[in-house]
Structure formats: C-alpha cells, structure tokens
Amino acid sequence: MVDSSDYAWIVLVIIIGAGALVCCAYAVFRFYGDTTTDGIKSLSNEQLEYMRGVRNRNIGTLDYMAR
C-alpha cells in the first residue's frame, strides 16, 4: 500500500523536474535563439497614425467618463 507521504515526494520530484526542464529549455533558446539586438524597430507611418487615433479615442473616452 502506498503512503500519502509517498505521493507528496512524487509530486515534489515532478515539480522540480519540470522546473529543471524549463531552465534547460531557456538555456537552449538563449544559445540557439534569435541573436539580433536591434531593439525596437521603427514603426511605419500607417501604424503611427493608427496608434495616434487609438490614443485619441481612449483619451476622449476617459474625458467623457470623467464628467
């Protein structure tokens, strides 16, 4: 018969193993992943105009709600 403390150990080992797997996957991604360090790419004029419109709508909505 399996004791309930045995289940706790099994769960603990699985959690530690999952953490180790995540760390290994992160290390592999850092080693083989995309190495470009260009930072933030410049936005197109259309995207800037769209974002400006969204920002103005949100500010207008906040102004209306504040009344």
Structure characteristics:
single chain, 67 residues, mainly alpha, 2 helices, 0% strand, membrane, transmembrane helix
Q: Could you spell the SSE succession in H and E letters?
A: HH
Shape: elongated
> Roughly what fraction of the amino acids lie in strands?
under 5%
Unreliable stretches: none
| Overall residue-averaged pLDDT value | 88
Distance between the termini: 69 Å
Transmembrane segments: 7-29
Keywords: Membrane, Transmembrane, Transmembrane helix
Structure description:
The chain has 2 helices and no strands. The chain has 67 residues and is mainly alpha-helical. It has one domain. The protein is elongated. The model has no long low-confidence stretch (mean pLDDT 88).
Topology at a glance:
Elements: H1 4-32, H2 45-66
Compact summary:
The chain is built from two helices and no strands.
